[in-house]
Amino acid sequence: MNQFYQDLTKWITIVSENIWWFMLPLLFFVGVLMTVRTGMVQVRRLGTSFRLTFAGFFGKKSKLIHEGDISPFQALSTALAATIGNGNIGGVATALVSGGPGAIFWLWVCGFIGMALKYSEALLGVKFREKHPDGTIAGGPMYYIKNGFKNKKLAAFLAPAFAVCGTIATLFGTGNMMQSNQMTMAFESVFGISKWIMAVVITVLVGIVIIGGIKRIGMVAEKVVPGMLVLFFVFGTVVLIINITAIPAAFALIVKYAFTPAAATGGFLGASVKMGLQFGFRRGLLTNEAGLGSAPIAHATAQTPSPVHQGLLGVCEVFIDTLAGCTFTAIVLLATGVWTSGLDGTAMAAASFKAVPLGQTVVAICAFLFGYATLLGWCFYGEQCAKYLFGIKITYPYRILFIILCFIGAVSSIQLVFFLGDIVNALMALPNLIALVILSGLVSKITKDFWKKYKKLEDYDGAPL
Predict the structure, then answer these.
(1) Which of 31, 156, 412, 456 has a CA 20 to 30 Å removed from the CA of 251?
(2) Is the CB of residue 353 less than 8 Å from the CB of residue 359?
């Protein structure tokens, strides 16, 4: 049985690498395309995006009445809960182990173009959303493919294809099994608590919330996400202050090894530029999900004034997750030197916080909260995909299956769950990226027309776009 498990892991590793040599140029091309088509929204409208996000953070609501299930900030929090997971802790560590410091540079590139991708996805998610028979809002790539494509034959194939891939990815991918795996690893490495015990705890806590659906998930995400971010950043800042003299060298390593091979040192086995490039994009997509097609499912449920408003929240989502969160983790790991320790995942992150009192405890708690929030968000994504295929009758059977696989992931190997997640993420992203290319003209038109009519966001009068 152990030999079978090793052979399976090896096969999955090879498949994931081959798939990503195809996905990498495609993701880059579509990201550049949407950057151009949106008029570099991630640069020109970044300030507006932050103002809109902070308005939601402080509870400011629009005076306009909007259709939707949850507030725009709850939708953003749900999407952030799904993106700011253990990809930001364990995922950054695995990127360093497999791709070297140069992988972080390419993760930045992925994050930059990802802001335009996420803007486009959220905009389309709101633009083409529908209502389920039970009154809840349904949206995401399957709906903007179905309702936005002029070629209905292509839509009839591509929309279900995304829903199938999305259902598989949410059950077996990085939004489920990898998160529970990293949660148990953190508690085992820091507290010595058995993976099996933590697997039971995680399964019960996830089940309690997801049975209540998107409204309960949104309420929990709105409260958990800000708190876990503050906790991680505060303690991480203390780590950086202790290692402040090593910070410039950490940035230098990232830039240097983005274009030159990283030699083996300590427990680090070395990495080529090619592997740094691939793992930068693989972990970029893992953590910010821009282009994956998952986040617009949450953004579509928002009681938002317009598609452009929600799209701008998507820009800030990627900035917070990747350009801020992942960079912060990477500099901590590089400045403390643990990236050459031979450790991996959240165990490496915990080691980097060791010099700070309660630091390792904080990493374990954050890994638990990050993973917990991501599990909630991704359960909803998969549920919406399953509903598209089978109707609302699939709701509870899907949730039960999600919980079971959450338990299995919690006791599996780190390499198996990460690389299996890479494969199913690529399969999920493919139909969505095709859809973004086909609908890029519409995204461009809506964006240009909006800013031509309204000089600033506050001028919006509720007119349909």
Answers:
(1) 31
(2) yes
* pLDDT value for 65: 46
In single-letter form, the type of residue at position 239 comes to V
Paired with 137 in beta bridges are: 131
Which of helix, strand or coil describes residue 272?
coil
What is the per-residue pLDDT across 264-302, written as a single tens digit (0 to 9) for each? 887 887 889 988 998 888 888 777 888 989 889 988 888
- Judge contact between 4 and 413, C-beta under 8 A: no
CA distances from 81 to 226, 307, 317, 462 (A): 10, 21, 10, 29
Question: In sequence order, what E strands does 339-448 have?
Answer: none
Segment (H or E) for 137: strand 137-138
Report pLDDT for 162. 95
Which helix (DSSP H) or strand (DSSP E) does residue 130 occupy?
Answer: strand 130-131
- Dihedral over alpha carbons 62, 63, 65, 67 (to 10 degrees): 0
Give tens-digit pLDDT for 345-379: 888 988 999 989 888 888 888 878 878 878 887 88
| Contact criterion met (CB below 8 Å) for 222 and 407 | no
CATH number belonging to domain 7-453? 1.20.1740.10
